[in-house]
Amino acid sequence: MGIAQRVPDLGALELLLAVVRLGSVGRAAAELGVTQPAASARISALEQRLGLALLDRSPRGSLPTEAGTLLAGWAQQVVTAATALDAGAAALRDRDGDRLRVVASRTVAEHLMPGWLVALDGMRPGTSVALRTAAPAAVAETVRAGAADLGFVEGARTPAGLSGTVVASDRLVVVVAPGHPWARRRGVDGGALAATPLILRAEGSGTREVLDRALAAHGGTAPPLLEPASTAALKAAVLAGAAPGVVSERAVAAELAGGRLVPVPVADLDLHRPLRAVWPAGRRPAGTARDLVGLARRSRP
To answer: Which stretches make up the HTH lysR-type domain (predicted)?
Structure first.
């Protein structure tokens, strides 16, 4: 049975969260606009599907069991992620017309922008944002050409012809498959990294810019073993044991947490990089663009 058959639908999870928050199936049903019998049946079906008792029911209301409390915490993460996905999809659909035009590097677009868009919709309900992705150099050119109102890039400097501000930070990590010889080492130095053919994104990417600068004192990077077209392809190649890879820590968080990839410390290199909002020089962001920049800065880890 696939995960789609095992995991409850979002409606059932939202109902469970409402019952836990309100302490009553009836009150949760009223909030969500369904009848109490329908809500009770859906909770029962959810319990049967999971094989868990989620609520302790009494005449005074419904309280979560220990399993129900744990599941509600995980359910909240799923619902939050689904909300972010919906906001991101809406931004990709709304490419034309009177709306905020944003272009972002893939790291920002994939790992930060969905949360920012959810927060922006909470501040300005109904806001329309058209989102595109591009390499950092193309982001800068798009904003300079007036084809986007706001850009988000990684890099040590604000691109020429633009103004900007740091809104977040990111860190590159060297990762290997668990069976790779480096997985058993305490780390490597910059010289070893520079001498090793790595799995890297193509030249012009934010990752290559930061890594090339960090390894300049060691003669720069060796010719890459592979230059995958996407982060997903890069991770797949590293997981297959082809070679070490260098990638944003945000992009491999799940693989590192699950032990599918192993981080390799590089003690003598600083692989941090700032993430910037950029806009045409001499024009400060206004309205929705200003709000988005402010939200990004306030969410900075």
So the answer is: 8-65
